[in-house]
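Q: Give me the 3D complex with adenosine-5'-diphosphate.
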Amino acid sequence: MIPRIELTGVSKRFGSRQVLDGLDVAVMPGESLVIIGGSGTGKSVTLKCILGLIPIDGGSIKVDGQEVAGLKGAALDAHRTRFGMLFQGGALFDSLPVWRNISFALSGTPADRRSAAIDNLARVGLAAEVADLKPAELSGGMQKRVALARAIAARPPIIFFDEPTAGLDPITAAVINRLIRTLVTDLKITAITITHDMASVRLIADRVAMLHAGKIIWNGPLAGLDACDNAYVRQFITGSADGPIQMPGARP
Amino acid sequence: MIAALVAIGAPVLAALASIGRLTRFAVTALSRLLQPPWYPAQLAQQMLVIGWLSLPVVGLTAIFTGSALAQQIFIGGSRFNAASTVPAVTVIGVVRELGPVLGGLMVAGRVASAMAAELGTMRVTEQIDALVTLRTDPFRWLVAPRILAAVLVMPFLVLVSNALGVMGGWLLATQRLGFNSAQYLATTQRYLEVDDVVSSLVKAGVFGFFIALMGCYHGYHSGGGAAGVGRATTNAVVSSFILILLSNLIITVIVFGS
Ligand SMILES: Nc1ncnc2c1ncn2[C@@H]1O[C@H](COP(=O)(O)OP(=O)(O)O)[C@@H](O)[C@H]1O
Ligand SMILES: [Mg+2]
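A: Here is the predicted complex, encoded as structure tokens.
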């Protein structure tokens, strides 16, 4: 079977900082991949490279077997129609009310788009009253959920979730985790989720990949996570300060 | 020797590169105006923000400056028994130079900074990335409407600025300097030429273009969090001021220099 998304040897440098350094990862159709890894290791950059928001320096990115790195114009637009993206900070348009944010990429009359927006609000556990508010009037957690509603509104076959539960209370986080799982299991979307939250990893993932120093250093089914003897992964999932991953300045 | 060349060459190359980037940015934005999709609601909103909301500050600037100009011409002119030139020199000074330039600078202070701050915030909060992912071209949605709105609206603002500047001079001359109102207005009309008004409006359009271009360019390329947005805002204001003053000089020399 051809992977839905396949990255081979992807590298990306910002100035003198080599963020991605020969990254290989693949996601099968209908699979939910979770990428874990420390802050600033390039997880968000990886998603942006796939979406063509950041040009890569080298390597290959294939979607359904076709090379997408370097696409331009209409071909790039067509490539992007397959994706929904929940940005790490939400990235809601603060000049537009919630319903226009959610229905931004939808077509139809304003009334249709408004009711589609309200349906999508319900899917993320928000009431219809939220529709007419501006993003600035919402709490951080509500903004995140509105952003999630926007990412799923156009029913794209592939959705990226960048830290979907960061900053949410445990109950809302559980609602979001279940929604992502439902999208994958029932609607057969392909998902890549970035998270630091091990509870989310266990609920969302079919497969887990760990990014460290610009490479995927471990990649396997969720069931293999606990049995994994990779010291980096072990340190990450147990949340220990002691291990091969060291923060600069954390030790005397 | 080579070190000296390198020392001179690097900033020159950097300057050329940024002129190249800016030109490409402007050409991209203008090319988006030529084909759909257009976003008329965005255009209308920008025209309101740039035009209507700038009226008070542009109007006040014009009235105060027009009055001060009339007072100075009167004082200066009295030394040569030429105090009667107040209406003629005031209208020429206001319409040719002060109306467009001061109007342009005031709008630049208000609008270029606001555009840079808004687009810069959208950049650092990933809203521009989100726009692209939702298949909307930020040049069409954000940049082109702002540039077009500024070019369309600035001539109207400058007309208001000119009219209020002349009115400020007339008010001061008739209320304080003892000029006869009807005579003052008749002289004003006699000395005001079509060329003056046309050059004034051309300047206004050019200034509007530079104001929006600088605001959008610096905001769009903003980086580095809140500090980056602050830098973008400052750069937008300073660079639009310089471009306004420079293009004003060029247009003045071309139109009136021969
Ligand atoms: N547009 C950019 N320009 C320069 N550096 C960037 C850019 N985007 C990300 N980076 C840098 O790349 C590194 C990885 O960022 P990111 O992918 O956001 O990390 P994370 O794994 O926490 O999501 C960081 O050091 C960040 O500063
Ligand atoms: Mg990130």
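A quick observation: The two ends of chain B are 44 Å apart (CA to CA).
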